[in-house]
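Sequence in, structure out. Go.
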Amino acid sequence: MGMVLTIPIIFCGLGDRDTTCAIAGGIVAISIGVEGIPTAWLQAREPLPNGYRETITLFRPTGPKKLALIKESGDRHFPPRLLEQPIFYPVLNEEYAAQIARSWNAASTDTGYIGYVTRFQVCAKFLSRYSIKTVGGSIHQEY
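Output:
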């Protein structure tokens, strides 16, 4: 479905077509996930610089106020941590992030009893400087 809606955008785009295609590809990836991008598209893309090809999907629970700040940044930045949050701890799976969102964010009057889970990609080369910590059961893994 995402590809069908995207193709008219690509062919109707005027001006900077490679940028238009990059935007359309991003829309498709957000809509259907990276795994849904056709193999031919992936094979036709320009190569990324060495070390920047592989990304790892991480998750982070948040409340509505912080989600609004993320949206204000164009979905590019997480807001600064609160004083009582000395570390930023992205987690490795959605199930664990949802547990945190339910237990902390959705359990608070400050959030209106609402919690969200954000999903984002981080360059594997960057993450290689950090170790994965298991902080409970096998799904409780975080950087």
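Check: Helices lie at 2-12, 17-32, 39-44, 64-72, 94-105, 124-127. Strands lie at 55-62, 116-123, 133-134, 141-142.
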